[in-house]
Design goal:
Blueprint (H helix, E strand, L loop, with lengths): L4 H8 L2 H6 L5 E3 L2 E4 L11 E4 L4 E4 L5 E3 H9 L3 H12 L11 H27 L4 H10 L3 H6 L3 E3 L5 H8 L4 H6 L3 E3 L5 E3 L4 E7 L5 E8 L7 E3 L15 H11 L1 E5 L2 H9 L5 E3 L7 H7 L5 E4 L3 H6 L1 H12 L10 H11 L2 E4 L8 H7 L1 H9 L2 E2 H10 L7 H16 L4 H15 L3 H4 L25 H11 L1 H4 L14 H10 L4 H9 L3 H12 L9 H37 L2 H17 L9 H8 L3
Parallel strand pairs: 12-13, 12-14, 14-15
Antiparallel strand pairs: 1-2, 2-3, 3-4, 4-5, 6-9, 7-8, 9-10, 10-11, 15-16
Helix pairs in contact: 1-4, 3-4, 11-16, 16-17, 18-19, 18-20, 22-26, 22-27, 27-28
Length: 616
């Protein structure tokens, strides 16, 4: 199965709708309440939380995400629950098998042909009179030879068949050169070079293999930039230029800067800013974000000054996102980026540049100004609100209404209540409108909210649950004997529960073997968890055990605080309604919570004092 199938299904599934098919739910504040389907009760203790896309019964303790609900309710395993929800969400689960040998061989041949082409173009640039225009362009743009060679820059001669002829003489067939995207088939059966009289930028994947090319025209020739057409190994929307050279710096700094063009990335690397990649002039796509999500705390988008100033990119892609298919949907719009902040647990910021400057110009003219621009990048929402409202908010009520319609959906994507309240108050102040108007409901295309992590991102692990499971998959031989201590009911992610089931009751050696080759549906997630610990220095087994115990305690404390806060909200609601029976029931649930978490009761929480003060 596709490793990201779980994420796709989770994003397209609303837990309220799924559970609502089996449980009669009623709205209770921001949440939904009903009778628990897993034990007999007369007063509802079963709560569904739309914001975190989780559920919990305060009576019997069962809880988790939508996968866990289906597993418990249908009495199926994780794989079957995934299949059920995938079918409901319209996600195709493909069984992944090793590609046939002929496919592996064909791809290897395409990599080889592209590598040969890169060598040919580089030779022309530095050793042939035909490369003189390219050398002159690099000199004008201030690209030194060491940097040009590091990026394997080259030049395509101003001839129709220079590369094709060179390839044919070295054993390639015309069909192979066309399949590699290096030549174009003619109607009469012949072919000609795709790139002519252009400065050539080899495009490499994360492993450093040349998969395609970008060619910059000289003078006023159009198009200014021409890329390899899509091939079996090249899709521009799934590759970030210079990632193979930037990934070490990204891992070291936990920060990546995304620019738009080849020359922007090259200039950055030449001047020592090595954590820079380029989206090659297109909107940042979901597949590109996946390439940089692991181990990144901050993503900085360094937009050209005109695009940033006018917000053309973000505003235009709001419309484009809705019109494109799922696979092609760009994420460089404000709503999509807010969702990615939650998903990646990364801080996304915008670095608007001085008027009339692109990154290439600014870096070469004033590297310190570039450094300042990146360091002072604005949080996405600050930038978005400033750009939409402008320096002088409109006085016309209709214009204000249009701004609220544009900003409101973005603010509703914010999962953290405190952050959302901050920005709602800011927009309210600047537009001179009541806060409740800013988040008013408006008709919009249906979009499922992805389950978000409810905890504040921090380095290196975003939440105690992820920290705990990262220890499990990174040190299975040390942690395996401690797994019975893990409170399964406190794990919200079903993948984590599935992992624990696999590792329970086996030897440390067996646990290590499972982690080394996990089930297909868990493989990508295990790798992501392992990546959270990638930069750690060596530690002793005793340190791991101490850390494991501490993380379990933090996990329990966090779950305790969250559940107690929800019960406190239920008490306030029952008091407003004058429902004494509900109050007695909730206080009974708090007593149950007390028995589960005795170490946190009662002195460290003000909620219990509030309960005692009700007099019930």
């Amino acid at each position: 199965m596709h490793g990201d199938a779980v994420d796709q299904v989770r994003e397209r599934t609303d837990i309220v709708e799924v559970i609502g098919q089996h449980v009669a739910l009623r709205k209770a504040g921001r949440n939904f309440k009903g009778l628990c389907p897993f034990h007999q009760e007369k007063t509802p203790s079963f709560i569904v939380f739309p914001e975190t896309q989780t559920f919990h019964c305060f009576g019997c303790g069962v809880g988790g995400d939508v996968f866990n609900f289906v597993m418990q309710f249908e009495r199926v395993d994780f794989r079957e629950a995934l299949r059920t929800l995938a079918q409901r969400a319209g996600v195709t689960l493909e069984e992944t098998a090793p590609p046939p040998p002929e496919v592996v061989e064909r791809h290897a041949r395409l990599y080889e042909l592209n590598a040969r082409a890169a060598s040919f173009y580089a030779w022309v640039l530095w050793n042939s009179p035909h490369g003189a225009p390219g050398r002159e362009l690099l000199e004008r743009r201030g690209v030194d030879r060491a940097t040009a060679e590091r990026f394997q820059l080259g030049f395509a001669p101003d001839r129709w068949d220079a590369l094709l002829t060179w390839m044919l003489k070295r054993g390639a067939t015309q069909e192979e050169v066309v399949a590699a995207g290096l030549a174009t088939q003619r109607d009469d059966g012949g072919a000609y070079d795709r790139f002519r009289n252009r400065l050539m930028f080899p495009i490499r994947d994360r492993e450093g293999r040349v998969v395609g090319f970008g060619g910059r025209a000289l003078g006023d020739a159009q198009p200014k930039y021409l890329n390899t057409a899509q091939t079996a190994i090249f899709d521009k929307g799934t590759i970030l230029y210079a990632l193979d050279l930037a990934q070490d710096a990204i891992r070291r700094t936990h920060e990546v800067v995304v620019v738009e063009g080849y020359m922007d990335a090259i200039a950055a690397h030449q001047y020592g800013f090595e954590n820079v990649v380029a989206s090659m002039g297109t909107a940042l796509t979901e597949e590109q974000v996946k390439l940089i999500r692991r181990g990144v705390d901050r993503i900085i988008l360094a937009l050209d000054a005109d695009a940033a100033g006018q917000m053309a990119t973000l505003r235009g892609l709001d419309v484009l996102r809705e019109s494109l298919g799922e696979a092609d949907r760009p994420v460089l719009d404000a709503r999509g980026l807010v969702r990615f902040e939650r998903t990646l647990k990364a801080d996304i910021r915008i670095a608007p540049l001085p008027e009339g400057q692109d990154p290439d110009d600014l870096i070469r003219r004033d590297p310190d100004a570039w450094r300042t621009a990146v360091a002072g990048a604005k949080p996405l929402l600050d930038f978005y609100i400033d750009a939409v409202i402008g320096d002088t908010p409109p006085a016309d009520p209709r214009e204000k209404s249009e701004l609220v319609d544009r900003i409101g959906p973005v603010l509703r994507e914010i999962g953290d209540e405190v952050v959302r309240a901050h920005y709602v108050a800011e927009v309210s102040r600047r537009l001179g409108l009541p806060e409740h108007v800013i988040l008013r409901a408006r008709p919009a295309p249906s979009r499922r909210i992805r389950r978000e992590d409810a905890y504040r991102p921090r380095r290196p692990i975003a939440s105690p649950e992820e920290h705990l499971m990262a220890l499990v998959v990174t040190y299975p031989e040390i942690v395996a004997p401690l797994i019975p201590q893990v409170p399964e009911e406190d794990l919200l992610d079903t993948r984590h529960r599935a992992l624990l089931h696999l590792l329970t009751g086996i030897t440390p050696e067996q646990a290590a073997a499972i982690i080394a080759d996990p089930p297909e549906e868990l493989r990508e997630h295990v790798e992501a968890l392992r990546g959270l610990m990638a930069d750690r220095p060596p530690v002793y087994p005793g340190q791991i055990r101490i850390e494991f115990d501490e993380v379990i305690r933090r996990l329990r404390r966090e779950r305790f605080d969250f559940r107690l806060a929800q019960l406190q909200a239920e008490i306030h609601e029952a008091e407003r309604a004058g429902d004494r029976d509900a109050l007695r029931h909730i206080i009974g649930l708090i007593e149950t919570l007390k028995s589960r978490f005795p170490e946190f009761y009662p002195d460290r929480s003000p909620y219990f004092r509030d309960v005692r003060d009700t007099g019930w």
